[in-house]
Amino acid sequence: MIAQGFLIRGQEILMVKQHVERGDIVWNYPGGGIEEGETPEQACIREVEEETGYVVKITSLLVQTPQKYTFLTEIIGGELTVDRASEVNKDIIDAAWVAINDDEKFYLVTKPMLELLAAQNAFKQNLFI
Fold first, then answer.
1. Which of 12, 35, 63, 91 has the fewest CB atoms in 10 Å of its CB?
2. Helix, strand, coil distribution of the chain in percent, nearest 5
3. What is the mean pLDDT of each run of 10 residues along the chain (129 residues)?
4. Measuring CA to CA, which residue among 125, 117, 127, 122 is closest to residue 60?
5. In the chain, domain spans
6. Domain 2-127's class?
């Protein structure tokens, strides 16, 4: 199981550039495996801090699949940095705020999260009209 954090700043999303098992280099949302004894929420908070330097809090569960929890998160501390000397970050190349319209950074796995968030926001806005 994986837990990941979805962090939004204006029209940007926090992402990490990483090597994945199949050999590709992709931009993904910060996150990783849930360790024994950890809740998905704890894993998300730990993984975001390990991969980006930001301390976050969970604001809500965006989506849950059989393999993954994706949480909306909010930064409460830290600063954007990647500790490349850390063994836990051996697959991380970079972390950056990515514009939501930067189609080169989003792919089959990450694009649906943007679409889901846009749909949720449109629904919430229409509820109060």
1. 35
2. 25, 40, 35
3. 93 89 85 96 97 96 92 96 80 91 77 71 52
4. 117
5. 2-127
6. alpha beta
User: What pLDDT does 84 receive?
Assistant: 76
Residue 29 has a pLDDT of: 92
Q: Is the separation of the CB atoms in 11 and 100 below 8 Å?
A: yes
> What contacts 45, CB < 8 A, 6 or more positions away?
5, 55, 56, 57, 58, 73
Q: What is the structure's pLDDT at 129?
A: 43
Does residue 58 contact residue 45 with C-beta atoms inside 8 Å? yes
Neighbour-count burial of 123, counting CB atoms closer than 10 A to its CB (0-12 exposed, 13-18 middle, 19+ buried): exposed
Enter the tokens of residue 68: 């993954």
- Helix/strand/coil for 34: coil
